[in-house]
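Can anyone check this?
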Amino acid sequence: MIRNNFRFAFRLFSKNLGFSIINIVGLSIGMAATLIILLYVLNELSYDRYHEKANRIYRISMQPGSDPSKQVCFTPPPLAPALVSSFPEIQSISRLVLWKRNVLMASGDKIFIEKNIAMADSSLFDVFTIPFLQGDPADALRRPNTIILTEKMAGKYFGHEDPVGKILTMNNDQQYEITGVIRSIPQNSHFTFDFLIPGKYDGLEWGDGCLQTYLTLPEDYPKQHLESKLPEFVISHMGPWVERVTGVPVEEYFKDENNQTSFHLMPLRDAYMNHNLEGVPGLDALMMKFGNKQNLILFSLLAIFILLIACINFINLSMARSVKRIKEISLRKTMGAERISVIRLFLVESVFLSFIALTLGLIILKISLPFFNSYLNTQLELSGISFLFLICVIITFFVGILSGIYPAFFLSRIKPTEILGKKSGTSFLRSPLSKILLSLQFIISIGLIISTVTIFLQMRHVDEAELGFTKDHVVLIERANALGEAQDDFAEILKRHPDVLSASYATSIPGRHFEPTTYGLEGRPGTEEYLFHTMHADDEFIDVLDLKIIQGRNLTKHLVSDELEAIINEKAVATYQWTDPIGKRIIFETKENGENTYAKVVGVVRDFHFQPLYQQIQPMMICSLPRKGNLLLVKLQPGEMQVPIAFIRDEWNKLTNNQPFQYTFVEDDFQKAYSTDYRTGFLFLLFACLAIFLACLGMLGLVTSTTEQRIREIGIRKVNGANSLAIFSLFSKDYIQWIGIAFIIACPLAYYAMYRFLEHFSSRIPLSWWIFAIAGVFAFMISMITISWQNWRIASRNPIDMLRYE
C-alpha cells in the first residue's frame, strides 16, 4: 500500500511539474540557507570544547569598580604566582600574552614577517590540550630564548627537516632555539598563535593588565568557593602596591567603589562569547577571537524565519493544491477507500516532496559552503556531524507531515454525496489556517525588509560619518623601528618629495589600541583617579591627521626635559571639569623609589573619534614620545599614490638593507574595526533578501493555485460584464487585508529589534517613519505585481474556455 502511495505521489509530481518545482525549490533553498546558518551557529558554540579539561578550566577576568559589565579578560602578571601560593586547590595556572607583534623572523635565507608570536609559562600545557609532535612539553619553555613552532610554521621554515635544535632569529639580533613542534591551534579556539616563547614579565606590576591568566580546578569544585576568597586576596596581595602608588591606605582607597578591583572566574567554554569587548579598538592586535552573542541570536532568528517562510510556502501550496482533489477523494471513498488510507495517501505525498526538497537542499549546501567558508574565514563542513543530518531528516519529516496533515484530515472527512456533482471545491483562502499562515509570512517579510533597510543605512552612515580627523591619503608604515638610528633621516628624506606633505612617528593611530590608564594629578589626593586613553606621538601627528588644537599649543619638536608633554581632548576637560587645563601636571608614572614622572598638559584638541563608532568619545591623551614610535604616518598629496609609495619603498630598502616593507592606508586600517560588522551585515542582507524572495515565490505559487480554483467563477463574471479591474479587486482584497494586519504587527517588533541593534553604535541613524513606510509599500507592491501578473494571465483568456475548465 505504501509503495502504491509513493508511485501515485511520483505521478502527481510529474503531472503538476510547475507547481511541484515552485514548491520544492522554495523549500530546498530555505533548507540550504537554514543549514548554513545552523552550521555557523554550531561552530560558534563549539569554541574551546576540545580541551580535555575544558569543564575545569577558567579564565580570570578583572573588574575595575563595582559594575560587572566592566569585566575584562586582561590581568596583571603578578596575579598568577600570587594565586598559586595562596590557594592549594588550584591544580595548574598559566599566563598567556596574546598581543600580536611585527617581527622579522629568519632561518637561513628564509625571511618572513611574523605577527602571531605568543608568550606563555611552561605550565601552559598542563592547562590546555596542545598535542606535541616533537619535543617534550615539560621542558620546552623552561629555558630562556627557546621557541615552539606549530607544524604549519615548521613546514614553512624547514620543510620536511627536523626543526628541533635549530635556530630562529628575530629582528636580526635575537636567537631562539627550537625546542618543540605542536599541532596547529584548531580553528574553534578563542586564541591562536604560530610561535610560543617563554614569558618575560620583569618590571610589570599589579596595574599592568596586559595578559590572560588561565587556571584549572579539581573536578566538581565550585568556582564560587574560590571566588569568595578573592576579595581578601586582593587586599593582602594588591594592597601594598596600591598604597605605594597612591600614598593612601588600601582600606581607605577601596572605600570608593570606583577604585575597587575584583577578580572573577570565567568558564573557558564561555570565554569566546563573554568578553565585554564589543567595539573596543585594537582587537585585531590580539591573537584572540571574539564571538558576538547578539549576532548569534540574530542569525538564529533569521534561520528560524527562513525555514518558517519556506515551510509556510510548502504547507500553503500543498494545501491549496489539495483542494482541487476533492472529487478524486470522493471517488476513492465511493470505491470503498477508508479514511485512514486517504490520510496515508496525503501524508506520503507531502513527505515524498519534502525529502526531494531536502536532497536538493543538501546539494545547494554542498555547492555554496566553500564560498561561506572563504568569506567568514571558517571551516564549516557536513562530514562528521551525524546529528545534524538527523536534525535535517526530523525537520523534513515534520514539514512533510505538517503540510499533509491538514488536507488529509480535512478532505478525508468529506462525504462523497456532498461533493459529487458539484463543479468546484472549497476555496483554501477562506480557511482560518490560511489566513494565519499568510499573515505570519507577511509579518516576517515586512520585519526583514525593515531590518534590511536599517542595517544598510547604518553601515553607510558608518562609512560617511564625520570622524574629526583626516584619514584620506595617509600612508601607515609598520615596523618603523627597523630603521634604527636612521628614523629621523628617513622622515626628512620623505618630506623632500613634492608629494609628501608631512610625516609623524607614533605608537598608535585612531582605530587601534589607545591604552586606557588611570593617572593621578599633582596636588590632588591619591584616591582621585583620572582615566585617559593614552598614546604617544611626535609634534607632527596633529598636522598629519588635521586635528584641531582649540586651546594651548602643539607638542615641542625636540623635548629635552625629563618631563613629558601631553595634549588632551575636549571630553577630558568636560569629564574632569578642568576650567583651566593648560599647565596641569599628570602623574604619568610612579617609580619604585617614589619619584614621579609628570606629563604637563600643553594643549587641548577638538574631540575626534579615536575609537570606532561603537564607542562614545572618551578622555584621551596624546603624550610626547620618549623615543621614536613603531609606526610612521606619511601624509600625501591627493592624486596618484603609486609614485610616492614607490619612492618611500626605495628609500626604505636603502636604509633597512631591503627588509620587508609593510604599509597600508589609515583609511583602510580604520575600517578594519568594522570588518566583522560588514561581513555579518552582508550575510544578514543576503539571507534576508533570500527570505523575501522565498515569500514572493510562495505568493506566486499560491496566487496561481487559488486562481485556478476560481477560473470558472471568473469566466462567469466576465460573461456577465466584469472587467479586469473588477477581477483584480476580487483577488487582491484579501491580500491587502493581510498585508495591513501584518504591517501593524511587524512594525513594533522590527522597531524593537533594530533599536537594540543600533544601540551597538554611539553614532547611529534615527529609526525614521519612512523606513517602515518603505517596507509596507514594498510588500504591497510585490503582492500587487504578483496578483496583477496572474490576473492579466487569467483575464486575457477566452471566457468560453474558462467555463469549460474543471
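Reply from J.R.: I decoded it. Residues 423-429 have pLDDT under 50 and may be disordered.
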